[in-house]
Design a protein that fits this description.
Immunoglobulin-like; 70 strands; 7 domains; mainly beta; 43% strand; 13-stranded mixed β-sheet; single chain; eight-stranded antiparallel β-sheet
């Protein structure tokens, strides 16, 4: 058992010159702490000491030394870190490292037999293990010499003396004057390293005649490979006492409290102990004894047929990537005593799942799962109870991830023979991952102890080797290729390989992967490398095998600079190459390519396309380049067709384009023709066309129709008389170009001469000039089907009461006509300008000839307020006169029909009238009446519905021409609407 004793140190013993027989063993280790701000590497040094605390020792608790020291020396050869030839090394720094045991913080441990009750075997032995720690910062320059430290640093601790006298060590000479030294090596500056950590403390004794297993096993925090071996114990080169055969130093028993005790230069090699007669490094227990250590895991077996004290040495070498970077030594003193019979626990027979029986070595591939049983039994009868513990970094996720699992690692397992359970067992399982392969085996130890007298322990070390997936055996392919060549690389068809992983250097692209072969396209000259890994059945990859291919430059090819075209256009591509004659060229893709095998070709892609120009000379030497033809497909949408009322406006908007470069047609009744969203107000249904041009001058067109619904207005509904005919589109023919023809049209809506009118028409007088006759007349009269005349009366002669404005194209001298085509105003159906019925004498029109085959615009305006009648002909006012038409022509009657007449006689012409939408009549104006009087007011437009508001003093406010008799002055609002939803609204007042 390990008994923990807390020490209260009352006195500190200064032992600098005290020779003692107390040293049993120990080891020297270090731990990397970190890099300091000044770049130094900081290490914690650990000195594990085993003291003999028996009755013959002069170091009895609590007088354990509080201080030890370790010297650090600058090594000069990192390839020979444990020299065997003569030499010396300078001390690093000016002082040694103070190693401290602090009883207030640390503890020491007494190693005593873990005997069952009543068993006293071995209780006379007493061993303490004590830990001393110190700290040092190591730089690449030795501060003591100013020289670089190129070979690393070695640590040395020496002290004197070992157990001597009658109860002293048996296998070395003069043990009481023999020193003891521990050595450890730190690799050169720049390497971060930690010493191996021993997993077990020394045993207090072993039994003579037994083969005892002992775990000198250690774990390495850095995962380095550890090689274990025996060595002769070290005597040291400085400590010494009493001039014994084992002492060559003159430094005394040890440093005591001094930090300058070790020499400035340490000589090599370190002296080993001198063995007593009959003993040697090979036979530390004499010729009948035996010892063995596993180089890979440190499991040690001892057998001594002699009783006594025997010292053995151990060295651990650390390898990292095949390089020796660390050394640590350990010494133990084994007390061999006589013991009563007790067989040690035995490993139970076990079938190895990988074949064979009771194997402690297992082999697996990374990614594989492994489970095996660990079981022990006690061969004694009756059987002793057993305890089992399992240890190893393999169970620690800090070092091994994922870790293995086993019972007895975090706990202790027990047998229970009293209840028939004579064995203790557990199961190891490990499901490895890819990447957990390593050269060294993973190590775990199982230690089982019985409860006999004395207790016997059997330790077994298991090694689990995880191998990396075996790589493929061969890789085949071309060793010389041309840039832009596509080459096949293959490997053997191996049924034991589950799969392959291919890769290629940056100047290659894998274009096809068939598993055991690939196609590689070489993109650049130089050395191309193909990498091939095998994949095992668990999905783990092997290390790659490689093949290098020399890639020669391909012909230089220039396909030209990228271009942009409009959809539907073509563009000429002109490629060039440095290839020597005899090459073959090809454009890909070859769709819409006029000459795919020529360096120059026309292309007309329908979408943006990258064309590759490949030039090949020979079978595999290919050069290539690409050019992108950007195809701009411009699409715009002018929107859906729409409908508005005449006189309204609407904003058009184009979807698509970039907001500029638009052109609209037609250009009339539109706010702007070069913007995306103009305002339009057409007079009739109109289709607007818009064209958009992109920055690359690509065109797109669309159109939108704006339908015009009519608003209520003057009706183009005419009553036809005589030969008059409706030609459509508001155009009427009054006469044909024949003699003695007559015709008239009268609007079905009467005008109210108490209200203004504005009549807008175009007149056509034919094409005959000197022999053309007779003209057209505009008239007001009270019957719509008057009898028409022929010839010079122009169709209105004899109509009474009436007022006519004639456009006369024939000179009747009897009527006082002018020679030129002219205009005159007559009333009561008389065409004679010399009669009292002439209101405005003849006035020449234009150049004097209006029978020119052209349409002539005429506008007739009446203002009842000042009784003014005006006429415009082709934009020129030709008539303006004031006259009381209501009272002088239509004795007090304000409602009349209006229209046009025409006639031919002995000469003729075609006469036509075209009604324009700008016409209105019965315009709303303010009216005045006397109190108690009434007034008829006509609607200014023809509508489907009429509404006069407010409904005050109106006989019926939904009639077209109601009668008004308000008692007070009133402002009225008229609204006329049609079935299209369009309306006209006007305001007027009736003053009383």
């Amino acid at each position: 058992m390990v008994r923990i004793l807390t020490i209260l140190i009352l006195n500190i013993l200064v032992i600098s010159n005290l020779f003692a027989t107390h040293l049993v063993g120990g080891n020297l280790a270090y731990e990397f702490v970190g890099i300091q701000p000044n770049g130094d590497f900081r290490y914690t040094l650990k000195l594990n000491y085993y003291f003999d605390c028996g009755s013959a020792s002069n170091w009895q608790p609590p007088n354990i030394p509080q201080n030890m020291s370790v010297a650090v020396y600058a090594h000069d050869d990192p390839t020979d870190i444990f020299p065997t030839t003569s030499g010396s090394y300078p001390k690093y720094g000016g002082t040694d490292v103070d190693m401290v045991y602090n009883s207030a913080v640390q503890q020491y441990f007494e190693v005593t037999p873990n005997n069952p009750s009543g068993c006293t075997v071995g209780t006379s032995t007493c061993v303490y293990t004590v830990l001393y720690t110190g700290q040092i910062d190591l730089a690449p320059i030795n501060p003591a010499t100013g020289q670089p430290v190129v070979g690393g640093y070695f640590l040395i601790h020496e002290a004197c003396c070992r157990n001597g006298g009658g109860n002293g060590i048996d296998n070395i000479q003069s043990p009481g004057s023999a020193g003891m030294a521990f050595y450890s090596y730190i690799p050169p500056y720049g390497y971060e390293n930690d010493s191996p950590i021993f997993t077990d403390n020394p045993v207090p004794f072993i039994c003579s005649g037994d083969t005892t297993t002992f775990l000198n096993t250690a774990i390495d925090p850095d995962g380095d490979e550890l090689i274990f071996s025996f060595m002769a114990p070290l005597d040291g080169n400085h400590a010494g006492g009493w001039g014994g055969a084992n002492n060559i130093g003159n430094g005394g028993a040890g440093p005591g409290g001094s930090l300058t005790w070790y020499p400035t230069n340490y000589p090599w090699p370190i002296e080993e102990v001198t063995y007593a007669g009959g003993y040697s490094y090979q036979q530390p227990f004499g010729p009948t004894g035996y010892y063995y250590i596993s180089a890979s895991n440190g499991l040690t077996k001892y057998k001594s047929n002699n009783q006594g004290k025997f010292v053995v040495g151990l060295i651990i070498k650390e390898y990292r990537n095949g390089t020796l970077i660390g050394i640590s030594t350990r010494e133990v003193q084994l007390n061999v005593i006589a013991c009563p019979p007790n067989d040690a626990p035995s490993l139970s027979p076990n079938i190895n799942p990988q074949g064979g029986f009771d194997s402690t070595e297992f082999f697996m591939e990374e990614g594989e799962n492994l489970c095996f049983d660990i079981s022990f039994f006690d061969p004694d009868t009756p059987a002793d109870s057993l305890t089992l513990n399992v240890n190893g970094q393999i169970f620690d996720s800090t070092f091994t991830n994922p870790p293995a699992t086993v019972g007895g690692y975090f706990d202790t397992l027990y047998s229970d023979p009293l209840n028939g359970v004579d064995t203790v067992s557990t199961t190891f399982c490990w499901d490895t991952d890819c990447g957990q392969a390593q050269t060294l085996p993973y190590v775990l130890s199982a230690s089982v102890s019985d409860r006999g007298c004395p207790p016997k322990t059997t330790s077994v070390v298991y090694e689990v080797t995880v191998s990396k997936t075996n790589p493929p055996a061969n890789l085949y392919g071309s060793i010389i290729e041309c840039q832009n060549a596509e080459t096949v690389y293959t490997t053997d068809d191996n049924p034991n390989i589950s799969g392959y992983s291919w890769d290629v250097s940056n100047n290659g692209i894998i274009t096809q992967n068939y598993g055991d072969s690939v196609k590689i396209f070489w993109t650049a000259p130089g050395t191309g490398t193909v990498f091939l890994k095998a994949i095992n059945q668990y999905g783990c990859e092997s290390d790659p095998i490689t093949m290098n291919t020399t890639i020669t430059p391909a012909p230089t090819v220039d396909a030209g600079s990228d271009v942009s075209i409009c959809i539907g256009d073509s563009v000429l591509l002109n490629g060039t190459t440095t290839a020597l004659p005899g090459y073959v060229s090809l454009w890909q893709p070859n769709t819409n390519v006029s000459s795919p095998n020529s360096l120059s070709t026309w292309v007309n892609p329908t979408a943006t396309t990258s064309y590759y120009l490949l030039v090949q000379r020979g079978t595999s030497c290919i050069g290539g380049d690409s050019i992108t033809v950007n195809v701009e497909s411009v699409n715009i949408d002018a929107g859906n067709d729409t409908t508005i009322c005449l006189g309204d406006s609407i904003q058009l908007d184009v979807f698509g384009g970039n907001g500029t470069n638009y052109v609209w047609n037609p250009s009339t009744n539109i706010s702007q023709t070069n913007i995306q969203n103009p305002l339009v107000w057409p007079n009739s249904t109109t289709q607007y066309y818009v064209q958009y041009s992109s920055p690359n001058n690509c065109l797109a067109e669309d159109s939108v129709v704006v339908f015009i619904n009519p608003v209520p207005g003057s009706s183009p509904d005419f009553i036809l008389n005589g030969a008059a005919a409706n030609l459509g589109n508001d155009e009427y023919r009054l006469t044909s170009a024949i003699n003695s023809d007559t015709g008239a049209i009268w609007n079905s809506t009467l005008v109210n001469l108490n209200q203004p009118f504005h009549i807008d028409v175009d007149l056509y007088f034919g094409t005959k000039d000197f022999n053309g006759a007779d003209g057209i007349a505009f008239g007001l009269q009270q019957l719509s089907n008057q009898q028409l005349g022929f010839g010079g009366g122009i169709g209105y002669g004899g109509i009474t009461p009436s007022l006519f404005i004639e456009f006369d194209t024939w000179q009747n001298t009897t009527n006082g006509d002018l020679f030129n085509d002219h205009i005159a105003v007559q009333y009561n159906g008389s065409p004679n300008h010399n009669s009292p019925f002439n209101l405005v004498p003849p006035i020449s029109l234009g150049s004097g000839n209006i029978e020119d085959g052209q349409w002539h615009n005429c506008i007739f305006d009446w203002n009842p307020t000042n009784q003014l009648l005006t006429v415009e002909f082709d934009g020129v006012q030709v008539v303006s006169f004031n006259y009381d038409i209501i009272n002088n022509v239509f004795p007090g009657t304000s409602a009349t029909f209006w229209g046009f007449t025409s006639a031919t006689g002995g000469s003729n012409n075609e006469h036509k009238v075209r009604y324009n939408s700008g016409t209105y009549f019965n315009e709303m104006i303010d009216q005045s009446i006397c109190n108690g009087s009434s007034l008829s007011i006509s609607a200014p437009v023809d509508a489907d519905n009429y509404l006069w508001t407010p409904n005050i003093g109106i006989n019926n406010n939904t009639l077209q021409n109601p009668t008004f008799n308000p008692s007070t002055s009133t402002e009225y609002i008229f609204t006329g609407s049609n079935t299209f939803g369009c309306f006209v609204r006007d305001t007027f007042s009736v003053f009383v």
